[in-house]
């Protein structure tokens, strides 16, 4: 049985779901792959829980389930000051201890460090793991969308990096692009609706509903962040677009991407609280967007919030798209990506499906971990 030691950073919704997937898929991994995923450490923003002997022991399934229960209640791993035979390190010791674990394991059996956090603080750890020829698997977009200097260090060994879930949750966006590039196909244009929230908003507005009503409904359904402006501002889509653009060879920074926000600066978090924005702010935007929807309809088009990557161009915002295209037919919170290349020139390669959700994202991360199993002995 092949063993893959791993450390998980980030115990939010995706991290917990990943741990649960690892436990529930033990038999599948053993019978189909001959692999056991051996969790030797789990870190949140405040502490690291690790096994005392990283070479022979692992967090057992009961302990993993207990960690998930603890974190789902909003507690920190630091509350486990003494948990069985496991060790709990404070935040100031976390980076040092992850680095030490990595240095020992990489030299012997190898190690996968999985980043399911939403923090930039993990970049230093990830770079050290890469320098030691360890493997990294990312759901966290921020490391790959920081400076080009950091990016270059993280992608130094591409075969040891997987990051499918940074763009389309479990959708095969990154792997499809890499396959085209590896085959010598030339990609000249990518257009994608990469936000389930904004996909839902735009398709509902297309049906004649006011933006303010749609945003309130989306928030009530749990489609948005607690502050819907975190979605409506478009920066999450911009990060995904940057990851794709860099994959295609563009050496650009996040602040060089043109991003259209669905709300003006005078309605920002520093000016209005969430309640004020929903009550008096977003209703002021209804008529303008309704007019744009009507104008698009006269052209036989619909509006979608998309990223457009073409040549040196990388933009994020509202675009008119043909009503009968894959993007035009998009409904609800699915993601859709259209890839135009030499081989897919007139009819693009279409990638479509659920592009959000803890379960879907965690499944994509798990698939990425299994995809690097040949690098372990």
TrEMBL record:
NADPH binds at residue 141. The keyword rRNA-binding does not apply. Residues 172-370 form the Homoserine dehydrogenase catalytic domain. It catalyses: L-homoserine + NADP(+) = L-aspartate 4-semialdehyde + NADPH + H(+). Its cofactor is a metal cation. Keywords: Amino-acid biosynthesis, Methionine biosynthesis, NADP, Oxidoreductase, Threonine biosynthesis. Pfam families: Homoserine_dh (PF00742). Pathway: Amino-acid biosynthesis; L-methionine biosynthesis via de novo pathway; L-homoserine from L-aspartate: step 3/3; Amino-acid biosynthesis; L-threonine biosynthesis; L-threonine from L-aspartate: step 3/5. The active site is at 240 (proton donor). GO terms for molecular function: homoserine dehydrogenase activity. Its EC number is 1.1.1.3. GO terms for biological process: methionine biosynthetic process; threonine biosynthetic process. InterPro entries: Bifunc_Aspkin/hSer_DH, HDH_cat, HDH_CS, HDH_short, NAD(P)-bd_dom_sf. NADP(+) binds at residues 10-15. L-homoserine binds at residue 225. Belongs to the homoserine dehydrogenase family. PANTHER family: HOMOSERINE DEHYDROGENASE (PTHR43070:SF3), PTHR43070. This is Homoserine dehydrogenase. It comes from Spinacia oleracea.
């Amino acid at each position: 049985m092949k063993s893959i030691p791993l450390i998980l950073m980030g115990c939010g919704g995706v991290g917990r779901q990943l741990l649960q997937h690892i436990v529930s898929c033990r038999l599948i991994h053993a019978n189909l792959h001959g692999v056991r995923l051996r969790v030797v450490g789990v870190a949140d923003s405040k502490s690291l829980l690790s096994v005392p002997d990283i070479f022979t022991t692992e967090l057992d399934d009961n302990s993993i389930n207990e960690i998930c229960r603890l974190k789902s209640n909003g507690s920190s791993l630091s509350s486990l000051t003494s948990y069985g035979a496991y060790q709990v390190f404070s935040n100031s010791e976390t980076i040092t201890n992850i680095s030490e674990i990595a240095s020992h394991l990489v030299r012997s059996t190898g190690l996968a460090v999985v980043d399911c956090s939403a923090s930039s603080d993990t970049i230093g750890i990830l770079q050290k793991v890469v320098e030691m020829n360890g493997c990294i698997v990312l759901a966290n977009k921020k490391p790959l969308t920081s400076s080009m200097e950091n990016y270059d260090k993280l992608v130094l060994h591409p075969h040891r990096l997987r990051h499918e879930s940074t763009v389309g949750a479990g959708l095969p966006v990154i792997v499809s692009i890499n396959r085209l590039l590896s085959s010598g196909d030339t990609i000249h244009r990518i257009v994608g609706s990469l936000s389930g929230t904004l996909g839902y908003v735009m398709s509902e507005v297309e049906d004649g509903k006011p933006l303010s009503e749609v945003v309130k409904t989306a928030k009530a359904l749990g489609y948005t962040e607690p502050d819907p402006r975190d979605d409506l501002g478009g920066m999450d889509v911009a990060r995904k677009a940057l990851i794709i653009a860099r994959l295609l060879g563009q050496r650009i920074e996040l602040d060089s991407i043109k991003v259209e926000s669905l709300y003006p600066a005078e309605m920002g978090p520093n000016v209005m609280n969430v309640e004020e924005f929903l009550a008096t702010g977003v209703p002021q935007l209804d008529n303008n967007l309704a007019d744009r929807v009507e104008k698009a309809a006269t052209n036989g088009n619909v509006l979608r919030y998309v990223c457009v990557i073409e040549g040196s161009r990388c933009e994020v915002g509202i675009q008119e798209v043909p009503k009968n295209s894959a993007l035009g037919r998009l409904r609800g919170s699915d993601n859709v990506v259209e890839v135009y290349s030499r081989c897919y020139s007139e009819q693009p390669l279409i990638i479509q499906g659920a592009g959000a959700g803890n379960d879907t994202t965690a499944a994509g991360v798990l698939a990425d971990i299994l995809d690097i199993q040949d690098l372990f002995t």
